[in-house]
Amino acid sequence: MQAALAINFPVVPPGEEDPRVRINTMIKIFNQKLPQRPNPNPASMDMGLFYEIKAAIKLVRARKITHGKEISRGLTKHESEVLGLNGASQMVKVPLPGNRFRELDIVYGGNNIVEVKDKRVLDATQMEKNVKLASTLGGSLSYALPTPEGKDKPNSASAYETAFKEAREKVYQEDGIQTNYSLGIIAVPSEDFAKNYWDGIVSGLAQIATQAELDKEIDENEDSSTMW
């Protein structure tokens, strides 16, 4: 089975072929959804999106993600309210019977699935589905998890590794599908963004440099070095 038959990638807006530009759109969405201060309820923040952004940045810098379509995102206000786009139009999706689908957070290289979690709650059913899909496609499966400051490994890593082994065995017993990879754990540093926001230390997430901006900086540095 080819990846194109199992995973639908979005057609990204012009410019978002650069995953850094797409991440900046996600940062814009996150910042627009921030509650007005003072608001004592950190739960009103979309920390799921926060960690999706942080995980995507890490994978772009590691040169795993190379195209914006590999990152699932929601819509901007302009896309939903002015353009009237379908809410799922910028998602990475797995088609399901009955014109349904399920979303994947990140899929790089066509078959390497990354799910991002902002809480310790483990979805065993989702794990089983992802193991089956990644194994069928000959890819891999990773979970990006919040990691406390000063630690190299998330506190919940062991629970996810145990759930993966159980899902791998169940997929083999029920479907005869071999899983020839280990679960990847991506450590996403936990940041006390909510507290810093409430305290007025930060006003939102900062945009990252796009590839065009990075290339321009390299060209300028090379030009300046040739002058001497």
TrEMBL record:
Highest taxon listed in the record's lineage: Eukaryota
Protein name listed in UniProt: Uncharacterized protein
